[in-house]
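Forwarding these from the shared drive since the link keeps breaking.
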Amino acid sequence: MDTDPYYTRPMSPAPADLVNAAELAGRAATLVRSLELRQMPRLVDAGALEGTQVQARIAFGTFEGRTTVDVAVEGTVTLQCQRCLQPCPSDVDEHATLVVVPDDESPVPGGYEAVVGNDERLSLVELIEEQVLLGLPLVPMHDGAAGGCDETDGAAEGPGPDAAAGDVQRPFANLRDLLAKRDG
């Protein structure tokens, strides 16, 4: 008997976040994941900073023979405050009920949102990232009541005391008159 070990090239590992959602739906499985910023490249591209961490609960099921995914995401995303330009924590609490469809043309049952993909190779990170991106504020700023922005920072201050109240600019104030002249 030959006792020499058999050497072969190592197999490339599949991404850890790909799951067989159809199989998990058949078992009505629920997965829980915690992700940090380094695991979510689309969040990095959106401007998220260190300190970002989210937790997700992903429940799989079926509806009319289709794979469904119930995603609930909670956590804190650290963004740059647009008032003082300092790190600003933003709470995220998003929930979605999805149905996996093979393409954009597939019909989606009422009460569900479509997620295009293969239900045998579904990326959990992409599902979680999408929900986090949907929950981000359009303009991240510290809460005024919390006093997060430094009051001595010039960017956080409003107009100076020498600004007159009548200096407010209204760029569309005469738009109705301009449109009336054009039409009439």
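-- next protein --
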Amino acid sequence: MSKMKRKPKELPDMTDWSDQQIHDFWKNHDSADYWEETVPVEVTTARRRRQVVPVPLDRSDLISLRKLARRLGTDPTVLIRRWIKEKLQAATL
């Protein structure tokens, strides 16, 4: 018994499609069906450069910060960055 070879599907032209239309298409289609039409691409991304700023804290403040962050379900570093952003926004208004 011979297996029938499946004809590759032709990828539609998505040039004028919205992001939502492209999302919906790939949500309902398998990229393996279009493998023959794929081409390798090189992608580069720009990483945000962050600078570490050491901030000395009293032990009791650090303990309080960790407890509060845990209670809020976040990391102490994330909480500190959020506070700094809020203060900077408020100061520039």
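The CA atoms of residues 44 and 51 lie 21 Å apart. DSSP finds three helices and no strands in the chain.

- D.
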